[in-house]
Amino acid sequence: xxxxxxxxxxxxxxxxxxxxxxxxxxxxxxxxxxxxxxxxxxxxxxxxxxxxxxxxxxxxxxxxxxxxxxxxxxxxxxxxxxxxxxxxxxxxxxxxxxxxxxxxxxxxxxxxxxxxxxxxxxxxxxxxxxxxxxxxxxxxxxxxxxxxxxxxxxxxxxxxxxxxxxxxxxxxxxxxxxxxxxxxxxxxxxxxxxxxxxxxxxxxxxxxxxxxxxxxxxxxxxxxxxxxxxxxxxxxxxxxxxxxxxxxxxxxxxxxxxxxxxxxxxxxxxxxxxxxxxxxxxxxxxxxxxxxxxxxxxxxxxxxxxxxxxxxxxxxxxxxxxxxxxxxxxxxxxxxxxxxxxxxxxxxxxxxxxxxxxxxxxxxxxxxxxxxxxxxxxxxxxxxxxxxxxxxxxxxxxxxxxxxxxxxxxxxxxxxxxxxxxxxxxxxxxx
Length: 431
Ligand SMILES: [Zn+2]
Fold this sequence. Notes:
Helix content is about 35%, strand content about 10%. By secondary structure, the protein is α/β, with parallel strands linked by helices. Strand 7, helix 9 and strand 8 form a beta-alpha-beta unit. The site of zinc ion has 7 residues, from loops.
């Protein structure tokens, strides 16, 4: 595939790395700061527009989430937790999804990049937008789940639906993209496609037979996988399945969740992908030339997440990067090899070719039933917050309130500003 230059934007807020889920918690926002440091170190920021997201309002969050849940996230903090025991239980906040200082601002930061990115795609200002802080795909309408509080993927898709009749969501995190699937389970305006470990594994959903319901029937695609998935196996399923989806569904925009916990050696994962195997998905999706929002997600082996997302930033830019890492703020994490790429393990691949082929055939049969270009019928009665969010795409950009708001206040950063500060504080320098 010939490499075509695309206009790429990148959202990053230097504050993101200062938030802490708590001692011993596998989710470390610091990995986003480490990624940014490598992106800067490789000079990739010079090849794209770098933005600091403008914080989204509470109203933008309640397009999907319930008012009482968002209000709860705004007020809860480690000091007043004991007054909210019933709420903590009801909203599933406390253990996997702990209360920590600045929780709501953290949610705002990662969500703002995703919605801000969708707005730029809608306006045609960029072909690709990257927000590595986003991709928190497990959050539900009124419930935190799997380290996720606000579902920025869902909110970004809702923004894209203002301009696009059909949006495709692709999820290569090792966990099923359950929150996004659930949100759009009964609409044909969003197709969700998730490739994930299935069977005695969080969150437990994502069977191949779960295909959507009502108008959304056949618009949820799930590829359940076993331990040890390697590059060749993944490529042998991802390309044909996504290729077929592109052919039958013809989305106007794509959201690609690039959870890095599907990499070999992840602290919570059990796949065996290299950076190249993971990034092959990014390369392939990019090749379709459709406006694409690229998000992060899971990723719990701290030294590998920045490797993955930096390499994928380079792939999206069509820029070659050296394997040898130059000295950077977090150099000690990357020893003993100090290379960008990382070895895979010799673990057994429990995904036999016959199994992969059988699932592929099943999914092709589901996709055969997909209308090439679904009609413009407005979906209602789904998990979606308001019917207005699912109105047909706006023709006149200027009428979009949120786009206008964003336009005035979004601040383009001089990337060099970040450089001295990217690792300037002392928090969490060792995992
Ligand atoms: Zn995950």
